[in-house]
Design goal:
about 0% strand, 6 helices
């Protein structure tokens, strides 16, 4: 176990608090408005990077947005056009999603789970709009606001 120092404790508290705030906003939009779905499980993993390690290249806005979009799109394409057993579709879609994130230099590790979510739930193209596009934009805007204006961090990296 890592020795808990004051800087680590501060980092953990900040990450936990602002992750809760961000997911709380997405949850309120999802359950207390008629605007649609703003949550996907992979956004929880995104919080680790956006608020725990915002200096990571994987936490940068283009990686968050396009990583989620590409991998969710791969999942939707598999649901709609690849008539293979689910255990083959999931494994191929995850591999192709990761391949494309790396090729396009938009790797965001939490997005690697999107094809699994999309295929298991048999989501439609609408899933790309809500929660993927709108949800990603909201978490990116909150991450920029919180990290750069409140926490005074160099985010996004220039």
């Amino acid at each position: 176990m890592k020795k808990i120092t004051k800087p680590i404790l501060t980092q953990a508290l900040i990450a936990g608090f602002f992750s809760s705030v961000t997911i709380g906003i997405l949850t309120l939009l999802t359950y207390k408005t008629t605007l649609g779905l703003f949550l996907t499980a992979s956004f929880g993993s995104s919080m680790v990077l956006l608020f725990g390690y915002p200096e990571s290249p994987f936490a940068q806005p283009k990686n968050v947005f396009f990583g989620h979009l590409i991998t969710a799109l791969v999942g939707v394409l598999f649901v709609n056009f690849i008539p293979l057993p689910i255990y083959i579709n999931i494994s191929l879609a995850v591999g192709i999603g990761i391949f494309l994130m790396i090729i396009f230099d938009v790797t965001h590790p939490p997005a690697g789970g999107n094809p699994i979510i999309v295929i298991i739930a048999s989501t439609s193209y609408e899933y790309l709009i809500n929660p993927i596009i709108f949800g990603s934009l909201i978490i990116i805007l909150l991450a920029i606001f919180i990290n750069s204006l409140i926490l005074k961090k160099n985010y996004p990296l220039k």
